[in-house]
Fold enoyl-CoA hydratase.
Amino acid sequence: MAYENILVETRGNVGLITLNRPKAMNALCAALIDELSDALDGFEKDAGIRCIVLTGSEKAFAAGADIKEMKSKDFMDVYGEDFITHDWERVTWTRKPVIAAVAGYALGGGCEMAMMCDFIIAAENAKFGQPEITIGTIPGSGGTQRLTRFVGKSKAMEMCLTGRMMDAAEAERSGLVSRVVPVEDLLEDAMKTAEKIAGLSLPSVMMAKEAVNRAYETTLAEGVKFERRLFHSSFATQDQKEGMAAFAEKRPANWKHR
Ligand code: CO8
């Protein structure tokens, strides 16, 4: 597939996807979503890739769904075709880790997409918001749900009811992002973090991701049981034997990713 709205590269064992629609602040049009899904499919199938970074430009991660593309749709257009079908959520079922590196605006669907990633590293100029209320609608791809889980009811409610944006410092304080870095360091920092993850055992990384995500879907007791079963399963991998042997022998592990 030829990409017109994203740039895709492989750097070592890390897959880098850059949203690239500068004329529209990286607004998420249908073509961009198709391309993003295709790129994620490719990285999932590529055994050499063990972590993915999703980023935008210095000005905008993404300023939301493409308003011009959806403005004339009526109820049956969106309800009938279940607009924002599962492709919009493709990031959430990526089994390899996906880091969002966010500079500039992450608004509406852009904020939702960043929250679908496994964690967010933000540049100092990042601005997060769910401004849909200001254009006569509400978030449609998890904003009311994920933002509330990240930052709590009070801030999420205020942001969804007023469209107020959160800057990077507030986003870090509120637990929306894992770290804030200078704009010029964002990509390098995200790539280094991704390389660190890609240098670990893929089965353990995938299990850890699955276990943390389960915390959002289940009770504490069930989540802990799920974690325990995955922990037990990790003992069936070659990498658990290698990792523990390497520790005992005071040498670096030679991961097989199996
Ligand atoms: N859709 C389409 N075009 C956009 C969008 C957008 N979301 N955002 C910006 N653009 C375009 C502008 O129209 C403008 O185009 P042109 O040059 O042709 O006039 C260009 O990008 C540059 O934008 P601005 O001139 O407005 O730049 P500013 O620096 O003045 O402002 C802002 C930047 C604050 C980001 C401003 O553009 C803005 O408010 N954008 C809209 C933000 C918004 O309301 N987003 C929510 C959209 S609705 C949504 O996301 C629903 C989610 C559904 C689920 C999606 C699943 C992933």
User: Anything to note?
Assistant: Residues 24-25, 27-28, 63-68, 84, 88, 105, 107-109, 112-113, 131-132, 135, 139-141 surround octanoyl-coenzyme A (CB under 6 Å). The chain has a mean pLDDT of 97.
